[in-house]
Specification:
- The structure is a single chain.
- With 402 residues, the protein is mostly helical.
- It has two domains: 245 residues, no CATH class; 73 residues.
- 72% of the residues lie in helices and 2% in strands.
- The chain is built from 15 helices and two strands.
- It has a two-stranded antiparallel ribbon with strand order 1-2.
- Strand 1 and strand 2 form a beta hairpin.
- Helix 2 packs across helix 9 and helix 3 crosses helix 10.
- The radius of gyration is 23 Å and the shape is globular.
Length: 402
């Protein structure tokens, strides 16, 4: 069932309104969101997405509703996995905590525009050439294989091709000037790192779209469902970033779960391509009778795999330890960086989390050497951050925490 022009207009208008609302009431004034704020708005956006899915069930039928939920859950999981890369990029550029919201919102808008373009191109190709399903399926299988390889911070670089090109072509500065995109350097106009990090995240979003769109086309070819599931999975991603801060590194098995899901969808696409086959060198251009995977089964497989990988990550000792490692490295560097934030409450929050993570690593004893890489380096970072905290506390005349 295809959506009416009125449904398209109302949906697009609602999505634009939510983005504008997000900017005007939350992002325009730079601040560090509290956990309560992030949780409240994350729940609201998820609620909007789920309500839209119920509406799709009611007005579009069970098949369309199932396709929406399968697509939304898959896209949301892929988006959460992408947040880890965003975290690395913003850490590489030393984005002040207060300005990270604006960077994320710009990244979401770029991602939405890029994926909309890919959706339109993908839909046109599918309608014209049935063999495109072979390409989409193969692309997902290759992506799944790549995701099974261990991912580390060194696997991703903020200095992508677009950023390197921008640095060579334009005059840039190493220092931020609030949230300005341009500043004056020696009397001349220059790009700030704020614009460069937006370019880096935008370029990364383009790469993510190449994986994301074939995946959802493997679940449905209804363009309205593809667009809405993708759009609603991106809305609220900014709030989710701050809500999951400190937990992203703990989802150590999520990438493996997503790899399994993408491999499953890639297989589903190739089976569908065989069923619709018209390539002359495959079965003399005739369709091949194969078992096709239903949307209902796809939804069940996606949910089961995600639940197993998420709970496996959360209850894993290695997962908790890797979270502690990442927190120590990230929080100590952030605390020692005078430009990271001017918010005293935020500085105290990351310092207390740093101490908790340090204590977790120390409590492991000999096991730490098996799991934690560069343990002495991490503990040295903790020592320097503690010394800085004690110095600040002494200067302010307040008790300090060891």
């Amino acid at each position: 069932m295809s959506a009416s022009p009125l449904a398209w207009i109302l949906t697009v208008a609602a999505i634009i309104a939510l983005l504008v609302f997000d900017y005007v009431f939350h992002v325009r004034s730079a601040h560090v969101p509290t956990t309560r704020e992030a949780a409240l708005w994350s729940a609201l956006y998820v609620g909007i997405a789920l309500s839209f899915g119920v509406g799709t069930f009611v007005f579009g039928g069970s098949s369309m509703g199932s396709e929406y939920f399968a697509g939304y859950i898959t896209e949301k999981a892929l988006s959460v996995d992408n947040l880890f890369v965003f975290l690395i990029i913003m850490g590489s550029f030393r984005v002040p905590r207060e300005n990270q919201q604006k960077v994320l919102l710009v990244g979401i808008v770029i991602s939405l525009l890029a994926r909309t373009a890919f959706i339109l191109v993908g839909s046109a190709l599918i309608n014209q050439f049935a063999w495109v399903f072979y390409l989409f399926g193969l692309a997902l299988l290759i992506t799944a294989g790549n995701m099974f390889r261990p991912q580390t911070e060194e696997s991703h670089s903020a200095q992508n091709v677009i950023v390197r090109f921008s640095r060579r072509l334009f005059r840039t500065t190493d220092n931020y000037d609030g949230d300005r995109l341009f500043t004056r350097l020696n009397g001349r106009r220059a790009m700030t790192p704020m614009l460069l990090v937006m370019v880096a995240i935008g370029g990364t979003d383009l790469m993510f779209a190449l994986d994301s769109i074939p995946a959802i086309f493997g679940l449905t070819q209804n363009v309205f469902v593809v667009f809405t599931a993708t759009a609603f999975s991106l809305l609220g991603l900014r709030q989710l970033y701050f809500l999951l801060d400190g937990l992203l590194d703990r989802l150590i098995y999520l990438s493996y779960g997503l790899a399994a899901i993408l491999a499953f969808i890639g297989t589903k696409l190739i089976l569908h391509a065989l069923h619709e086959n018209n390539l002359p060198f495959v079965n003399d251009g005739e369709p091949i009778e194969v078992v096709e995977i239903t949307t209902g089964l796809s939804l069940i497989v996606i949910l089961v795999v995600l639940l197993i990988t998420i709970f496996g990550s959360l209850f894993s000792t290695r997962g908790r330890t890797q979270t502690a490692m990442a927190n120590v490295r990230r929080d100590a560097r952030a605390y020692l960086d005078a430009e990271y934030t001017d918010d005293a409450a935020e500085r105290e929050r990351i310092y207390r989390r740093l101490l908790d993570s340090r204590d977790h690593i120390i409590a492991l004893g000999p096991k730490a050497k098996q799991i934690v890489k560069n343990e002495p380096e991490l503990l040295e970072l903790c020592r320097r951050a503690s010394a800085s905290h004690e110095s600040e506390a002494t200067a302010a005349g307040t008790p300090h925490t060891h």
